[in-house]
Amino acid sequence: MTLNPTLREITDRIIDRSAPTRAAYLARMETARGQGPARRHLACSGQAHAYAGAGEDQAALAAGPGGNLGIVTAYNDMLSAHQPFEHFPSIIREAARVLGATAQVAGGVPAMCDGVTQGTAGMELSLFSRDVIAMAAGVALSHNVFDAAVFLGVCDKIVPGLVIAAQAFGHLPAVFLPAGPMTSGLPNDEKARVRQQFAKGEVGRAALMAAEMAAYHGPGTCTFYGTANSNQMLMEIMGLQLPGASFVNPGTEMRTALTRAGAQRALELSALGETYTPTCRILDERAFVNGIVGLNATGGSTNHLMHLVAMARAGGIVLDWQDFSDISAITPLVARVYPNGLADVNHFHAAGGLAYVIGTLLDAGLLHADTETVAGPGLARYTREPKLIDGALIWQEGPGESVNAQILRPASDPFQPTGGLKKLDGALGEAVIKVSAVAPEHHVVEAPVRVFDDQEAVKAAFQAGEFTSDVIVVVRFQGPRANGMPELHSLTPVLSILQGRGLKVALVTDGRMSGASGKVPAAIHVSPEALEGGPIARLRDGDLLRLDAPAGRLEILTAGVLDRAPASADLSGHQAGVGRELFAAFRAHVGPATEGASVFGGSDAD
């Protein structure tokens, strides 16, 4: 199918915009490739240090011609999504030995869970953890003794941070090895219902705890389609994971087979072989456009309006929110997965999964088919599914039709003709909204505002019965420079209850919502943020706002608002405790949300 001409135009403008920074990045990668891994050039003492803990692989490392694979792992056993990684290094080492190669754990990176920290002070470290992960992975690979790398990560900030690091070492091949989702437990809509009952005071904490434990019950990532599972979709559609690897459950034979195959493929792609495919060649402008298409087509996480921007900049590619909005306008929504539907990711995978999604988008001319991938040239490889036949891993053609039209539909007959993400412009600045789960009657909200400086004050006002009419809840001083831009997902039950009472309700914030943003319209990532004196800092209770998602507008209807002095807030309570004092430099130097909310200023992409 011929590439959609609008998609081609958007890609071309990204290429043109990025030309100077992309060229500088690729020149650096070519220099790094020419220098090669340093282990053969290390002094004997340096090599001895690098090999001392390698056990049976010492001799191969010291004298063997085989490649050495660096493992960067986000393993910890407190987070269900990363607990399965405990045994991956031994699987990877065995897979490398089959090829006469070696593998070493280069280092570990932190992995925090937004589900655990949601609504707590720890959430204020969440976004910054992405850049910490990138730096930690950079330290891990800085020994420069590896021919290729595999990255073990799944969740919200972990995968974007690992991608940023993989691009810093973009002369090396890299394969991402996921752990997969936990098996299905309590349905997500039932979990949400119990949360609302608790917020209303209809059930106690024991009932809430029982529901949460039934939903989050075993190893693997959460089964709703939030940032973690959006990450997995992106890694597959952008060509950094093997086809069909995203949503295979942990602890299965298929999961182990894919882990082995991914490790071996990383080694096969190294400069020691005949199919050298560095990460910098895979993650080009076309791959990022494919990622944005996939995000819109599946109703993916709003967090990636920042993460993809930051990931792209690490490779010299400059994306902006208009790119997302313009791609959304031509991308049909072909999947409904909770919170955009009742299905979880296991149901999505069973209905045809990413093989079907990629196939129907390719047929519609809505993906660049000619990208490089870790599986080989061409994205059509990702319409195939992995199978274990007599113990051997092979790929067969995936489903040509959806198994369940309530979960997956063809691009020719989608759930809706456009994607779920929209850029908003207006007197408040720039913002974004996800509407794939928002009913059409809520796409436009015009109402007076109630202004708050934190989410706890919103909850207190709700408990006091203060919301009795249409309202746009404004929560400000939640931007990256103010307090690390926490997610405000704990407001979801409150706002959903108000909407369920028949009120017109919306949220406007310079903070984030969860990757599982749902049915309440939310204009998020407002930039400039309040701490920078953005117009959101000039709003007062009773001012009239209009949020118009179809038109892409966020307007102040009250006269004279921009003539006011900006409000200030006491943020001293956000500067210390739970490790926040360690991140003062991050808060001082982080860039705006529109540029990925990254601390990596001064890069080629700036």
UniProtKB/TrEMBL annotation:
The keyword Lipid metabolism does not apply. The keyword Iron-sulfur applies. Gene3D superfamilies: IlvD/EDD C-terminal domain-like (3.50.30.80). [4Fe-4S] cluster binds at C155, C222. It comes from the Bacteria. Its EC number is 4.2.1.12. Residues 69-380 form the Dihydroxy-acid/6-phosphogluconate dehydratase N-terminal domain. Coiled coil: none annotated. Its cofactor is [4Fe-4S] cluster. Keywords: 4Fe-4S, Carbohydrate metabolism, Gluconate utilization, Iron, Iron-sulfur, Lyase, Metal-binding. Residues 406-597 form the Dihydroxy-acid/6-phosphogluconate dehydratase C-terminal domain. GO terms for molecular function: phosphogluconate dehydratase activity. Pathway: Carbohydrate metabolism; Entner-Doudoroff pathway. It holds the Pfam family ILVD_EDD_N. It is an enzyme of class 4 (lyase). Belongs to the IlvD/Edd family. This is Phosphogluconate dehydratase. It comes from Pseudodonghicola flavimaris.
